[in-house]
Structures are given as C-alpha cells and as structure tokens.
Amino acid sequence: MSGKGGVGKSTVTACLADGLTRLGVSTGVLDADLNGPCMARMMGVKDHKPSSQNGAMIAARNAYGVPVMSMDMFLPEDETPLVWEAPSQQGAYTWRSMVEMSALRELLSDTDWGDLDVLLIDLPPGAERFQNLADLLPDLTGAVVVSTASQTAMTVVSRSISMALNIAEVEVVGLVENMSTMVCPECGYKDRVFIGVETVEELARRHGVPYLGAIPFNVGLADFLETGRSYIEMHAEHPAAHAILEVAQRVHFWLKNQSK
Amino acid sequence: MALKSTHGPFDGSMSIVYECPTCSMQTAMLTNRAETQMVRSLGVKIGGRTAPEEPMETLRSNLASGQEVSPERPAPSTGGKCPFTGMVNDAIGAAESEPEKPVWTEGALARIEAIPGYIQPMVKRNVENFALEHGCFEIDEDVMDAVRGRLGI
What we know:
The complex is a heterodimer. Chain A is of the alpha/beta class. Chain A has one domain (9-259): Rossmann fold (3-Layer(aba) Sandwich). Chain A has helices at residues 9-22, 39-42, 96-109, 127-136, 151-167, 200-207, 221-225, 231-234, 239-259; strands at 27-31, 52-53, 56-58, 60-61, 67-69, 111-112, 118-122, 143-147, 172-178, 181-183, 190-192, 211-215. In chain A, a hairpin with a 5-residue loop joins strand 4 and strand 5. In chain A, helix 1 (9-22) crosses helix 9 (239-259) and helix 4 packs parallel to helix 5. The radius of gyration of chain A is 18 Å and the shape is globular. Chain A starts with 8 loop residues before the first helix and ends with a helix. By secondary structure, chain B is of the alpha+beta class. Chain B folds into 2 domains: 2-97, no CATH class; 103-151, Helicase, Ruva Protein, domain 3, CATH 1.10.8.550. A 3-stranded antiparallel beta sheet of chain B has the order 1-2-3. A two-stranded parallel sheet of chain B has the order 4-5. In chain B, strand 1 (2-10) and strand 2 form a beta hairpin. The longest helix of chain B has 15 residues, at 83-97. Classes of the chains: A alpha/beta, B alpha+beta. The A-B interface holds A 49-50, 52, 55-57, 71, 73-77, 79-88, 91, 94-96, 98-99, 102-103, 106-107, 110-111 and B 9, 11-13, 33-34, 37-38, 41-43, 54-68, 71, 116-119, 122, 129.
C-alpha cells in the first residue's frame, strides 16, 4: 500500500513476488485495484481467461507458478472500464463501493490459490482502501508501504502509515523506497531522482517502521515484468535486481519472525 | 392484507399493492431503487436462494461488460418465506430473465456499431429499456434520436 498513486506499488508488488519466489516462498498476488487493474499484465498472465473448477475460480499462474487474480481477467478489452450492472447508473455512488467490496471479497475468497505462504495484495491509491481491506481481513499480517522520495508522495504516505498503525492497527512490515536513483546508461553516474528535506529512510525512522531498501529507477523494468519472467534471474547483475532481492529478503525475514 | 398486484420493475423500482380482504382498502409499497440495488450489491438474493452459489457470483453477475457472457440469474424464490420479498424477487427476476425485446432496424444498429464496442451492450440495453418504457417495439433512428439526449450517444 501507499496511499499515493504513481509511486510504483504494482511494480514493487510484482518485484516482491519475484523476489519471494526466488527465496522459496510460495507467493500469490491479488490485484485489489478493481478500477485500474494491471497485475495480470505485470505478472505476464494478461491473456488468462477465468474459469472455475470444484466451486472455485482458477487463478492464473505465471511461468514460475505464482497464482494471480485480477479484475483485468474479467474485463473483455483493455479499453473496457469497470461498470457495474444496474437498472440505472444514477445514484450509483450510493452502492458502488459496496459492490466493489463484495467483488474484492470474492476475488480473495473464491479463488483457488493452492498452498501459499504469502498472498501479496496490491492496493489502489487512497489510504481508506487499506482500512477497507483491514476490515475485510482482520487477520491481515502486515503492510508493505511503497513511496518515492518526492515530498508530496511522502506526505501522503506518512498519513497512510499512521492510518495503518493507529486506525487499522495493522503492523507495517516496512517502507520500500521506489525510483530512488537513476543510473546513467553511458557512464554509470548515479543520481537521486527526488531531493527533499526528508529522506524515505528518515520517514521510516520517524514512524518507527523498518526501511526495507531502495529500488533504483529502471526504464525497462515494468516492460520486462510483462513478459512474466523473473527480473532477478534474467538481470541478475543489474543494481535493481540486487535491490529487489534485498527487499524480498527483509520481508522474508520479517515474516519468519512473525511466524515464530 | 392480501397481496393484490405488482407493477414494474421500472428503472429499478417497483410497487406492490396490498388489499384489505374485508373493506378492500388498498396500500401500495414502493421499493427504493438505490436501496434495492445496494442490497443486491452485497450479493443478497432477495427472497432467498434455491440454487447453490457460484464462485465469484456477485462479481460476474454485476459486471455490465464482463468476460463471461452469461451472468448468473437469481433463482426462483419458491423457497423464500416472506411473500413480500418473494414477489419482489420474482418480479425483478422475471424482468431480467424474460426481457421483452424490441426489434432493431438496420439504421439503428449501424448507429450502435459506431460507438466503442465495450459500451455497446450497456447502451443497447438502455435504448431498449427506453423504447419499452415509451411503448416502442421497433427501435429505429427516430427512437435513437429521442434517446440521444438522455444517453449522450
């Protein structure tokens, strides 16, 4: 979760799924962004057609067997917006959020996930989405928070962390800094993408939550993820691959401590 | 009070008329469109269900343009205990499962085909509802013109 849009939640979710799978953790991915679903594409299972078996919907599985469920799979075309059937769309604001929560509950509970150690849930922007999810899943293990070092993003993310800790009362696994630096492809010069008065690491410290690491900006990362292959495996030498694996290792370590 | 008749559903709401068996005084109840939709949004089968639940039933049956073409329909409410909710469910179910389909002329169909594919089913359904509400059993370009302002086609 983040609370802010455009910080790379979905990219980090896909990367984390990749990293945890590399570490031998059986991981699934649920796309909780019903109106802007992209996890099916980012996990390389965009063309999966939904079907059911034994009373459950079959999750799509990427090349590494990671099960994925997304609203994307139920919408016929890329241009199809999410519109709920009703005698009239007039006054839809009164019931739309209810049907979306019902849909999210079904995506979660009516999917045959197989045996999982971890289910990553990619949330849409908006701090209240996390609270809704926490209401739906009272046993939610923890929240991985994603931010860039943009001061605007960090202000929103700071509120989201407060919401998770104090209102939803869910543990925060840690804060991931995305798009932290940019490396010149010619000379290797590395520079920060955002510069502000507070760093993401300082933000994590201020809230007393772990700083899970910084993933550098990588032009080809999102496009590569759509192939459904492991970035960590295929680009093992790239700094982004190291960073993703480090973040995954810290999340894995946190989870292992939780289960003790 | 005895159930006398039902009217609708029209645009998501319907009325149910009760009559006193001794003095014939009638009382009508009107279902609220938004509230009815809100209850149905939660996956509640008004009047009870007789068929087993399908996976992701609420999601699939509520999508206006879904990957799966055949949405689940509410089961007949014969198993329901309340006559009021039973009648509401029967009437809404009947309206959804046995729609009175007007005939489309080629000109009207050509206009529908000119709009983006993903909203065609929804617009078509709205035009058909509009036509039926106005007693038209053939949808031609005049009907499309009449509905243009309302749907923004």
